[in-house]
Amino acid sequence: MATLAELVQERTDIEAPVLAHLQRLVAGWGVLADLCFSDLFLFAPVRGTHERFVVLGQMRPTTNQTLYLDDLVGHVVGPEERPLLPRAFALGSVVEGEVVVPRRSEPARLVCIPVRFEGRLVALLTRESALSVGRRPGVLERVYIEVFDRLARMISSGDYPFPLDEAIPADSPRVGDGVLVLDARARIDFASPNAVNALHRMGVYSGIEGVRLDEAGLQQTAVLRAYQMRLPVAEEIGDGGDTALVFRCVPLLEHGVVTGALVLMRDVSDLRRRDRLLMSKDAAIREVHHRVKNNLQTISSLLRLQARRVPAGEARHALEESERRVRSIAIVHEILSRDTADEVDFNDILPSLVRLAEDLASAEKPIRLSHRGDAGRLQASIATPLAVVITELLQNAAEHAFPPAAPGGRGSPEPLAVQVALERSESALEVTVRDNGIGLPEDFSIDAPTSLGLSIVKGLVEDQMGGTIAMRTDGGAVVELWIPLDHSLDDLTTL
User: Does an H or E element contain 395, and which?
Assistant: First the structure.
Protein backbone atom coordinates (compact mmCIF):
# COMPACT_ATOMS: atom_id res chain seq x y z
CA MET A 1 0.00 0.00 0.00
CA ALA A 2 1.33 3.42 -0.98
CA THR A 3 2.03 5.97 1.74
CA LEU A 4 0.25 9.30 1.96
CA ALA A 5 3.34 11.10 0.65
CA GLU A 6 3.62 8.72 -2.33
CA LEU A 7 -0.06 9.13 -3.21
CA VAL A 8 0.20 12.91 -2.98
CA GLN A 9 3.23 12.93 -5.27
CA GLU A 10 1.74 10.53 -7.82
CA ARG A 11 -1.88 11.68 -7.97
CA THR A 12 -2.23 15.29 -6.78
CA ASP A 13 -0.87 18.83 -7.08
CA ILE A 14 -0.37 19.17 -3.32
CA GLU A 15 2.92 20.84 -2.35
CA ALA A 16 5.20 20.02 0.58
CA PRO A 17 3.76 22.41 3.25
CA VAL A 18 0.24 21.14 2.60
CA LEU A 19 1.45 17.54 2.69
CA ALA A 20 2.98 18.15 6.13
CA HIS A 21 -0.37 19.58 7.30
CA LEU A 22 -2.24 16.51 6.07
CA GLN A 23 0.32 14.17 7.65
CA ARG A 24 -0.21 15.86 11.00
CA LEU A 25 -3.96 15.43 10.56
CA VAL A 26 -3.82 11.68 9.93
CA ALA A 27 -1.15 11.15 12.61
CA GLY A 28 -3.68 11.63 15.38
CA TRP A 29 -7.10 11.35 13.77
CA GLY A 30 -7.91 8.14 15.60
CA VAL A 31 -9.27 10.44 18.32
CA LEU A 32 -11.58 12.07 15.78
CA ALA A 33 -12.94 8.72 14.60
CA ASP A 34 -13.57 7.59 18.19
CA LEU A 35 -15.34 10.84 19.10
CA CYS A 36 -17.80 10.64 16.20
CA PHE A 37 -18.20 6.82 16.26
CA SER A 38 -17.63 6.86 12.49
CA ASP A 39 -15.25 5.92 9.70
CA LEU A 40 -13.11 8.79 8.47
CA PHE A 41 -11.67 9.29 4.98
CA LEU A 42 -9.30 11.92 3.64
CA PHE A 43 -9.86 12.88 0.01
CA ALA A 44 -7.83 15.15 -2.26
CA PRO A 45 -8.64 16.16 -5.84
CA VAL A 46 -6.75 14.25 -8.51
CA ARG A 47 -4.19 16.31 -10.40
CA GLY A 48 -5.85 18.58 -12.97
CA THR A 49 -9.47 18.09 -11.86
CA HIS A 50 -11.90 18.87 -9.05
CA GLU A 51 -14.32 16.13 -10.08
CA ARG A 52 -12.29 13.06 -9.20
CA PHE A 53 -10.75 12.44 -5.77
CA VAL A 54 -8.16 10.01 -4.43
CA VAL A 55 -8.40 8.46 -0.96
CA LEU A 56 -5.29 9.58 0.95
CA GLY A 57 -6.22 8.08 4.30
CA GLN A 58 -8.74 5.92 6.12
CA MET A 59 -9.42 5.55 9.85
CA ARG A 60 -11.83 3.18 11.61
CA PRO A 61 -13.29 3.93 15.05
CA THR A 62 -12.61 1.82 18.12
CA THR A 63 -15.85 3.02 19.73
CA ASN A 64 -18.17 1.60 17.06
CA GLN A 65 -18.35 -0.93 14.24
CA THR A 66 -16.75 0.02 10.96
CA LEU A 67 -18.74 0.21 7.75
CA TYR A 68 -15.74 -0.62 5.57
CA LEU A 69 -13.91 -3.93 5.87
CA ASP A 70 -11.73 -3.15 2.83
CA ASP A 71 -8.89 -0.64 2.73
CA LEU A 72 -9.74 2.05 0.20
CA VAL A 73 -6.52 4.06 0.43
CA GLY A 74 -5.32 4.85 -3.09
CA HIS A 75 -8.74 4.39 -4.72
CA VAL A 76 -9.94 7.11 -7.06
CA VAL A 77 -13.66 7.97 -6.97
CA GLY A 78 -15.70 10.10 -9.31
CA PRO A 79 -18.96 12.06 -9.07
CA GLU A 80 -20.97 8.96 -9.93
CA GLU A 81 -19.80 7.26 -6.71
CA ARG A 82 -19.52 10.25 -4.38
CA PRO A 83 -21.44 13.17 -5.84
CA LEU A 84 -21.15 15.16 -2.62
CA LEU A 85 -17.36 15.48 -2.89
CA PRO A 86 -17.25 17.81 -5.93
CA ARG A 87 -20.09 19.84 -4.45
CA ALA A 88 -18.40 20.22 -1.05
CA PHE A 89 -15.09 21.17 -2.67
CA ALA A 90 -16.78 23.74 -4.90
CA LEU A 91 -18.75 25.30 -2.01
CA GLY A 92 -15.93 25.06 0.49
CA SER A 93 -18.37 24.34 3.29
CA VAL A 94 -19.76 21.37 5.23
CA VAL A 95 -22.11 19.27 3.10
CA GLU A 96 -24.23 16.40 4.43
CA GLY A 97 -25.99 13.62 2.58
CA GLU A 98 -25.97 9.89 1.99
CA VAL A 99 -23.64 7.45 0.28
CA VAL A 100 -24.01 3.78 -0.63
CA VAL A 101 -21.46 1.59 1.16
CA PRO A 102 -19.70 -0.73 -1.31
CA ARG A 103 -20.24 -4.50 -0.86
CA ARG A 104 -23.02 -3.81 1.66
CA SER A 105 -25.44 -2.00 -0.69
CA GLU A 106 -26.85 0.03 2.16
CA PRO A 107 -26.92 3.79 2.61
CA ALA A 108 -24.78 5.59 5.17
CA ARG A 109 -24.72 9.13 6.47
CA LEU A 110 -21.95 11.23 4.92
CA VAL A 111 -20.59 14.53 6.20
CA CYS A 112 -17.97 16.34 4.07
CA ILE A 113 -15.71 18.66 6.08
CA PRO A 114 -13.38 21.08 4.26
CA VAL A 115 -9.70 20.86 5.20
CA ARG A 116 -7.95 24.22 4.94
CA PHE A 117 -4.33 25.22 5.16
CA GLU A 118 -3.44 28.90 5.49
CA GLY A 119 -6.94 29.84 4.35
CA ARG A 120 -6.86 27.63 1.24
CA LEU A 121 -9.07 24.57 0.69
CA VAL A 122 -6.75 21.60 0.11
CA ALA A 123 -8.72 18.42 0.89
CA LEU A 124 -11.93 16.97 2.28
CA LEU A 125 -12.45 14.93 5.44
CA THR A 126 -15.53 12.72 5.35
CA ARG A 127 -17.32 11.22 8.31
CA GLU A 128 -19.33 8.15 7.35
CA SER A 129 -21.65 6.29 9.73
CA ALA A 130 -24.71 4.07 9.62
CA LEU A 131 -28.06 5.86 9.38
CA SER A 132 -29.08 4.22 12.66
CA VAL A 133 -26.27 3.99 15.15
CA GLY A 134 -26.12 0.58 16.80
CA ARG A 135 -26.06 2.02 20.33
CA ARG A 136 -28.63 4.13 22.12
CA PRO A 137 -27.36 7.72 22.26
CA GLY A 138 -26.84 9.13 25.75
CA VAL A 139 -24.94 11.93 27.46
CA LEU A 140 -21.55 10.43 26.58
CA GLU A 141 -22.42 10.08 22.89
CA ARG A 142 -23.85 13.60 22.77
CA VAL A 143 -20.76 15.13 24.38
CA TYR A 144 -18.38 13.21 22.14
CA ILE A 145 -20.23 14.32 19.00
CA GLU A 146 -20.23 17.94 20.22
CA VAL A 147 -16.47 17.82 20.77
CA PHE A 148 -15.98 16.30 17.32
CA ASP A 149 -18.07 19.08 15.77
CA ARG A 150 -15.87 21.68 17.49
CA LEU A 151 -12.75 19.98 16.13
CA ALA A 152 -14.38 19.75 12.69
CA ARG A 153 -14.92 23.52 12.70
CA MET A 154 -11.23 23.93 13.57
CA ILE A 155 -10.30 21.68 10.64
CA SER A 156 -12.51 23.75 8.35
CA SER A 157 -10.92 27.00 9.53
CA GLY A 158 -7.35 25.64 9.35
CA ASP A 159 -6.73 25.69 13.13
CA TYR A 160 -6.50 21.89 13.35
CA PRO A 161 -4.18 20.04 13.21
CA PHE A 162 -1.93 22.32 15.19
CA PRO A 163 1.22 23.49 13.37
CA LEU A 164 3.52 22.58 16.27
CA ASP A 165 1.74 19.52 17.60
CA GLU A 166 3.92 17.23 19.67
CA ALA A 167 4.76 13.79 18.33
CA ILE A 168 2.11 11.37 19.58
CA PRO A 169 3.79 8.47 21.44
CA ALA A 170 2.64 4.87 21.17
CA ASP A 171 1.15 4.91 24.68
CA SER A 172 -0.78 8.16 24.09
CA PRO A 173 -4.31 7.96 25.52
CA ARG A 174 -7.30 7.27 23.29
CA VAL A 175 -10.92 8.25 23.75
CA GLY A 176 -11.79 4.89 25.29
CA ASP A 177 -9.16 5.37 28.00
CA GLY A 178 -10.84 8.40 29.55
CA VAL A 179 -12.09 11.84 28.51
CA LEU A 180 -12.47 15.16 30.33
CA VAL A 181 -14.08 18.15 28.63
CA LEU A 182 -13.07 21.51 30.08
CA ASP A 183 -14.73 24.91 29.63
CA ALA A 184 -13.04 28.23 28.84
CA ARG A 185 -11.99 28.62 32.51
CA ALA A 186 -10.41 25.14 32.57
CA ARG A 187 -13.21 23.73 34.75
CA ILE A 188 -14.49 20.21 34.15
CA ASP A 189 -17.74 20.14 32.17
CA PHE A 190 -17.82 16.38 31.58
CA ALA A 191 -15.93 13.29 32.70
CA SER A 192 -16.36 9.90 31.03
CA PRO A 193 -16.82 6.84 33.27
CA ASN A 194 -13.29 5.60 32.49
CA ALA A 195 -11.90 9.02 33.38
CA VAL A 196 -13.76 8.94 36.71
CA ASN A 197 -12.31 5.50 37.44
CA ALA A 198 -8.80 6.74 36.65
CA LEU A 199 -9.27 9.73 38.97
CA HIS A 200 -10.47 7.41 41.71
CA ARG A 201 -7.18 5.54 41.46
CA MET A 202 -5.44 8.88 41.99
CA GLY A 203 -7.41 9.43 45.19
CA VAL A 204 -10.05 11.82 43.76
CA TYR A 205 -13.43 10.55 44.95
CA SER A 206 -15.58 13.68 45.32
CA GLY A 207 -17.62 15.26 42.54
CA ILE A 208 -15.34 16.82 39.96
CA GLU A 209 -17.73 18.58 37.60
CA GLY A 210 -17.35 22.33 37.82
CA VAL A 211 -13.92 22.20 39.49
CA ARG A 212 -10.41 22.56 38.14
CA LEU A 213 -7.84 19.80 38.29
CA ASP A 214 -5.72 21.61 40.85
CA GLU A 215 -8.80 22.10 43.06
CA ALA A 216 -9.29 18.32 42.91
CA GLY A 217 -5.72 17.82 44.13
CA LEU A 218 -4.10 17.05 40.76
CA GLN A 219 -1.41 18.78 38.74
CA GLN A 220 -2.73 20.85 35.88
CA THR A 221 0.53 22.06 34.36
CA ALA A 222 -0.38 20.51 31.00
CA VAL A 223 -3.76 22.26 31.00
CA LEU A 224 -2.29 25.68 31.82
CA ARG A 225 0.39 25.33 29.14
CA ALA A 226 -2.17 24.19 26.54
CA TYR A 227 -4.42 27.19 27.28
CA GLN A 228 -1.52 29.63 27.20
CA MET A 229 0.23 28.31 24.08
CA ARG A 230 -2.97 27.18 22.29
CA LEU A 231 -1.19 23.92 21.49
CA PRO A 232 -1.63 20.31 22.68
CA VAL A 233 0.46 19.40 25.72
CA ALA A 234 1.11 15.95 27.19
CA GLU A 235 2.14 15.24 30.77
CA GLU A 236 2.44 12.29 33.11
CA ILE A 237 1.39 12.69 36.72
CA GLY A 238 1.53 10.34 39.68
CA ASP A 239 0.28 10.08 43.24
CA GLY A 240 3.72 9.49 44.68
CA GLY A 241 3.11 5.75 44.72
CA ASP A 242 2.39 3.16 42.06
CA THR A 243 -0.35 5.06 40.20
CA ALA A 244 0.50 7.11 37.11
CA LEU A 245 -1.72 8.85 34.56
CA VAL A 246 -0.84 10.27 31.15
CA PHE A 247 -2.71 13.47 30.27
CA ARG A 248 -2.98 14.94 26.79
CA CYS A 249 -4.73 18.31 26.71
CA VAL A 250 -6.00 19.51 23.31
CA PRO A 251 -7.27 23.11 23.34
CA LEU A 252 -10.54 23.83 21.49
CA LEU A 253 -10.45 27.11 19.54
CA GLU A 254 -13.09 29.41 18.08
CA HIS A 255 -11.67 32.20 15.90
CA GLY A 256 -8.29 31.74 17.59
CA VAL A 257 -9.70 31.97 21.14
CA VAL A 258 -9.54 29.03 23.56
CA THR A 259 -13.10 28.07 24.45
CA GLY A 260 -12.31 24.82 26.22
CA ALA A 261 -10.19 21.72 25.97
CA LEU A 262 -10.37 18.00 25.38
CA VAL A 263 -8.31 16.08 27.94
CA LEU A 264 -7.51 12.47 27.13
CA MET A 265 -6.20 10.46 30.07
CA ARG A 266 -4.83 6.96 30.43
CA ASP A 267 -3.86 4.92 33.46
CA VAL A 268 -0.30 3.73 32.74
CA SER A 269 0.41 2.34 36.21
CA ASP A 270 0.86 -1.22 34.92
CA LEU A 271 3.12 -0.03 32.10
CA ARG A 272 5.35 1.93 34.48
CA ARG A 273 5.43 -1.02 36.88
CA ARG A 274 6.60 -3.26 34.04
CA ASP A 275 9.15 -0.61 33.01
CA ARG A 276 10.60 -0.60 36.52
CA LEU A 277 10.68 -4.40 36.52
CA LEU A 278 12.48 -4.44 33.16
CA MET A 279 14.99 -1.87 34.41
CA SER A 280 15.64 -4.06 37.43
CA LYS A 281 16.12 -7.11 35.22
CA ASP A 282 18.38 -5.17 32.86
CA ALA A 283 20.52 -4.09 35.82
CA ALA A 284 20.72 -7.71 36.98
CA ILE A 285 21.76 -8.89 33.50
CA ARG A 286 24.47 -6.23 33.31
CA GLU A 287 25.71 -7.27 36.74
CA VAL A 288 25.86 -10.91 35.59
CA HIS A 289 27.94 -9.92 32.53
CA HIS A 290 30.17 -7.81 34.77
CA ARG A 291 30.78 -10.70 37.14
CA VAL A 292 31.40 -13.13 34.27
CA LYS A 293 33.94 -10.66 32.87
CA ASN A 294 35.66 -10.41 36.26
CA ASN A 295 35.76 -14.19 36.62
CA LEU A 296 37.18 -14.60 33.12
CA GLN A 297 39.83 -11.99 33.84
CA THR A 298 40.73 -13.86 37.03
CA ILE A 299 41.09 -17.09 35.05
CA SER A 300 43.16 -15.23 32.47
CA SER A 301 45.47 -13.92 35.20
CA LEU A 302 45.86 -17.39 36.69
CA LEU A 303 46.76 -18.85 33.29
CA ARG A 304 49.26 -16.05 32.70
CA LEU A 305 50.89 -16.62 36.10
CA GLN A 306 51.02 -20.35 35.48
CA ALA A 307 52.60 -19.82 32.05
CA ARG A 308 55.40 -17.76 33.61
CA ARG A 309 56.26 -20.64 35.96
CA VAL A 310 56.45 -23.19 33.14
CA PRO A 311 59.70 -23.53 31.15
CA ALA A 312 59.64 -22.27 27.59
CA GLY A 313 58.16 -24.83 25.26
CA GLU A 314 54.88 -26.31 24.14
CA ALA A 315 53.30 -26.24 27.60
CA ARG A 316 53.93 -22.51 28.09
CA HIS A 317 52.76 -21.81 24.55
CA ALA A 318 49.51 -23.72 25.17
CA LEU A 319 48.85 -21.79 28.38
CA GLU A 320 49.49 -18.47 26.64
CA GLU A 321 47.08 -19.40 23.84
CA SER A 322 44.39 -20.38 26.35
CA GLU A 323 44.91 -17.11 28.24
CA ARG A 324 44.35 -15.08 25.06
CA ARG A 325 41.17 -17.04 24.24
CA VAL A 326 39.75 -16.40 27.68
CA ARG A 327 40.66 -12.72 27.43
CA SER A 328 38.87 -12.36 24.09
CA ILE A 329 35.68 -13.76 25.63
CA ALA A 330 36.05 -11.41 28.61
CA ILE A 331 36.16 -8.45 26.21
CA VAL A 332 32.69 -9.33 24.87
CA HIS A 333 31.21 -9.58 28.37
CA GLU A 334 32.80 -6.25 29.28
CA ILE A 335 30.91 -4.57 26.43
CA LEU A 336 27.69 -6.42 27.33
CA SER A 337 27.93 -5.17 30.91
CA ARG A 338 27.61 -1.58 29.66
CA ASP A 339 24.33 -2.00 27.77
CA THR A 340 20.86 -3.36 28.53
CA ALA A 341 20.54 -5.21 25.22
CA ASP A 342 21.88 -8.72 24.65
CA GLU A 343 23.89 -7.46 21.71
CA VAL A 344 27.07 -5.47 21.19
CA ASP A 345 28.60 -3.21 18.57
CA PHE A 346 31.36 -5.50 17.32
CA ASN A 347 33.45 -2.55 16.19
CA ASP A 348 33.84 -1.69 19.88
CA ILE A 349 35.36 -5.13 20.45
CA LEU A 350 37.66 -5.32 17.43
CA PRO A 351 40.30 -2.78 18.62
CA SER A 352 40.79 -4.79 21.83
CA LEU A 353 41.25 -7.98 19.81
CA VAL A 354 43.83 -6.19 17.67
CA ARG A 355 45.72 -5.13 20.79
CA LEU A 356 45.76 -8.76 21.95
CA ALA A 357 47.43 -9.75 18.68
CA GLU A 358 49.89 -6.85 18.94
CA ASP A 359 51.17 -8.39 22.18
CA LEU A 360 52.76 -11.09 20.00
CA ALA A 361 54.93 -8.53 18.21
CA SER A 362 58.60 -8.07 18.98
CA ALA A 363 61.56 -6.26 17.49
CA GLU A 364 62.35 -9.33 15.40
CA LYS A 365 58.68 -9.91 14.38
CA PRO A 366 56.96 -6.51 13.94
CA ILE A 367 53.23 -6.68 13.17
CA ARG A 368 51.19 -4.03 11.37
CA LEU A 369 47.46 -4.63 12.03
CA SER A 370 44.50 -2.78 10.53
CA HIS A 371 40.76 -3.24 10.20
CA ARG A 372 38.03 -1.73 8.07
CA GLY A 373 34.27 -2.06 7.59
CA ASP A 374 31.44 -2.20 10.09
CA ALA A 375 29.93 -5.34 11.56
CA GLY A 376 27.17 -3.40 13.35
CA ARG A 377 25.43 -4.75 16.44
CA LEU A 378 25.60 -8.52 16.90
CA GLN A 379 23.85 -10.84 19.32
CA ALA A 380 26.10 -12.11 22.09
CA SER A 381 25.65 -15.65 20.70
CA ILE A 382 27.47 -14.47 17.56
CA ALA A 383 29.85 -11.85 18.99
CA THR A 384 31.43 -14.16 21.58
CA PRO A 385 32.55 -17.01 19.25
CA LEU A 386 33.45 -14.48 16.53
CA ALA A 387 35.80 -12.71 18.94
CA VAL A 388 37.54 -16.00 19.69
CA VAL A 389 37.75 -16.84 15.96
CA ILE A 390 39.34 -13.50 15.03
CA THR A 391 41.79 -13.80 17.93
CA GLU A 392 42.83 -17.25 16.71
CA LEU A 393 43.23 -16.08 13.11
CA LEU A 394 45.33 -13.07 14.11
CA GLN A 395 47.50 -15.24 16.35
CA ASN A 396 47.87 -17.83 13.58
CA ALA A 397 48.99 -15.13 11.14
CA ALA A 398 51.49 -13.74 13.64
CA GLU A 399 53.04 -17.16 14.20
CA HIS A 400 52.96 -18.73 10.74
CA ALA A 401 52.82 -15.99 8.09
CA PHE A 402 56.61 -15.90 7.83
CA PRO A 403 59.05 -18.74 8.35
CA PRO A 404 61.28 -18.48 11.41
CA ALA A 405 64.67 -16.88 10.88
CA ALA A 406 67.61 -19.15 10.22
CA PRO A 407 70.20 -19.41 13.02
CA GLY A 408 72.31 -16.28 12.96
CA GLY A 409 70.11 -14.73 10.24
CA ARG A 410 67.13 -12.45 10.11
CA GLY A 411 63.48 -13.13 9.44
CA SER A 412 61.38 -11.43 6.82
CA PRO A 413 62.74 -7.98 5.82
CA GLU A 414 59.24 -6.48 5.93
CA PRO A 415 56.81 -6.31 8.86
CA LEU A 416 53.86 -8.64 8.95
CA ALA A 417 50.74 -6.79 7.72
CA VAL A 418 47.37 -8.25 8.67
CA GLN A 419 44.01 -6.70 7.76
CA VAL A 420 40.57 -7.63 9.07
CA ALA A 421 37.74 -6.59 6.73
CA LEU A 422 34.09 -6.66 7.77
CA GLU A 423 31.12 -6.40 5.42
CA ARG A 424 27.57 -6.77 6.66
CA SER A 425 24.36 -7.28 4.72
CA GLU A 426 20.81 -7.76 5.96
CA SER A 427 21.23 -11.53 6.26
CA ALA A 428 24.95 -12.22 6.76
CA LEU A 429 28.31 -10.95 7.93
CA GLU A 430 31.41 -11.53 5.82
CA VAL A 431 34.80 -11.40 7.54
CA THR A 432 38.09 -11.51 5.64
CA VAL A 433 41.46 -11.82 7.38
CA ARG A 434 44.37 -11.27 4.96
CA ASP A 435 48.15 -11.17 5.54
CA ASN A 436 51.23 -10.58 3.37
CA GLY A 437 53.04 -13.73 4.42
CA ILE A 438 54.13 -16.85 2.58
CA GLY A 439 50.62 -18.22 2.27
CA LEU A 440 49.29 -21.68 3.01
CA PRO A 441 51.09 -24.99 2.46
CA GLU A 442 50.29 -26.69 -0.84
CA ASP A 443 48.65 -29.66 0.86
CA PHE A 444 46.65 -27.55 3.34
CA SER A 445 42.94 -28.29 3.77
CA ILE A 446 40.63 -26.59 6.27
CA ASP A 447 38.64 -29.83 6.42
CA ALA A 448 41.64 -31.49 8.07
CA PRO A 449 43.22 -28.80 10.28
CA THR A 450 46.54 -29.74 11.84
CA SER A 451 46.51 -27.24 14.71
CA LEU A 452 44.23 -26.85 17.71
CA GLY A 453 43.64 -23.18 16.88
CA LEU A 454 42.26 -23.87 13.41
CA SER A 455 40.18 -26.76 14.79
CA ILE A 456 38.63 -24.31 17.26
CA VAL A 457 38.00 -21.77 14.46
CA LYS A 458 36.34 -24.36 12.20
CA GLY A 459 34.15 -25.68 15.02
CA LEU A 460 33.01 -22.25 16.16
CA VAL A 461 32.26 -21.00 12.65
CA GLU A 462 30.42 -24.06 11.35
CA ASP A 463 28.84 -25.57 14.45
CA GLN A 464 28.14 -22.62 16.76
CA MET A 465 27.56 -19.81 14.25
CA GLY A 466 26.21 -21.92 11.38
CA GLY A 467 28.59 -20.28 8.90
CA THR A 468 31.26 -21.32 6.42
CA ILE A 469 35.02 -20.85 6.29
CA ALA A 470 37.38 -20.87 3.32
CA MET A 471 41.17 -20.43 3.26
CA ARG A 472 43.36 -19.77 0.22
CA THR A 473 46.64 -18.16 -0.84
CA ASP A 474 46.56 -14.82 -2.68
CA GLY A 475 49.66 -12.75 -1.98
CA GLY A 476 49.55 -14.27 1.49
CA ALA A 477 47.03 -16.26 3.46
CA VAL A 478 43.38 -15.24 3.03
CA VAL A 479 40.65 -16.49 5.39
CA GLU A 480 37.03 -15.81 4.41
CA LEU A 481 34.17 -16.30 6.86
CA TRP A 482 30.48 -16.15 6.00
CA ILE A 483 28.20 -15.95 9.04
CA PRO A 484 24.38 -15.90 8.72
CA LEU A 485 22.64 -13.42 11.00
CA ASP A 486 18.99 -14.38 10.57
CA HIS A 487 19.32 -17.41 12.88
CA SER A 488 20.90 -15.48 15.76
CA LEU A 489 17.56 -14.65 17.35
CA ASP A 490 16.71 -18.35 17.53
CA ASP A 491 19.79 -18.89 19.68
CA LEU A 492 18.35 -16.62 22.34
CA THR A 493 15.84 -19.28 23.28
CA THR A 494 18.68 -21.55 24.37
CA LEU A 495 20.37 -19.02 26.67
Answer: helix 380-400
Across the chain, what does the average pLDDT equal? 84
Q: Across-strand partners of 113? A: 125
Tell whether 367 and 420 lie within a shared domain: yes
Q: Which of 65-79, 163-177, 249-263, 422-436 has the lowest mean pLDDT?
A: 163-177
Both 100 and 149 in one domain: the answer is: yes
pLDDT tens profile 103-132: 777 888 999 999 999 999 999 999 999 886
Same domain flag for 329 and 254: no
- Starting at the edge strand found earlier in the chain, the sheet holding 179-182 runs 188-191, 179-182, 257-267, 244-254, 233-238
Is residue 169, in this structure, part of any structural domain at all?
Answer: no
Q: When comparing pLDDT for 389 and 401, which is higher?
A: 389
Angle at 319 between CA 357 and CA 286, to 5 degrees: 70
- Residues 302-320 have a mean pLDDT of 81
Alpha carbon of 322 to those of 46, 217, 327, 365: distances in Å?
71, 65, 9, 21
In this structure, are 96 and 121 located in the same domain? yes
Q: Both 150 and 24 in a single domain?
A: yes
Per residue in 2-17, pLDDT (tens digit) is: 789 999 999 999 999 9
Shared domain check, 453 and 317? no
Q: Are residues 360 and 297 in the same domain?
A: no
At 320-355, the pLDDT tens digits run 778 877 877 777 777 667 665 667 888 888 888 877
In sequence order, the β-bridge partners of residue 235 are 247
Contact 437, 401 (CB under 8 A): yes
Pairing relationship of beta strands 367-373 and 416-424 according to DSSP bridges: parallel
Nearest residue to 236 (alpha-carbon basis) of 250, 222, 226, 252: 222
Same domain? For 421 and 480 the reply is yes
In this structure, what CATH number is given to the domain that contains residue 419?
3.30.565.10
Domain count, the chain: 4
Is position 429 within any domain? yes
Sign of CA dihedral 188, 191, 194, 200: positive
What is the C-alpha to C-alpha distance for residues 433 and 239, in angstroms, rounded to an integer? Answer: 59
Identify the CATH number of the domain in which residue 240 sits. Answer: 3.30.450.20
The boundaries of the domain holding residue 263 are 175-267
Concatenated DSSP letters for 336-359?
HTT-SSSEEEHHHHHHHHHHHHHT
163 in any annotated domain: no
Q: What pLDDT band is residue 291 in, cutting at 50, 70 and 90? A: confident
Identify which of 5, 77, 15 has the alpha carbon closest to the alpha carbon of residue 43.
Answer: 77
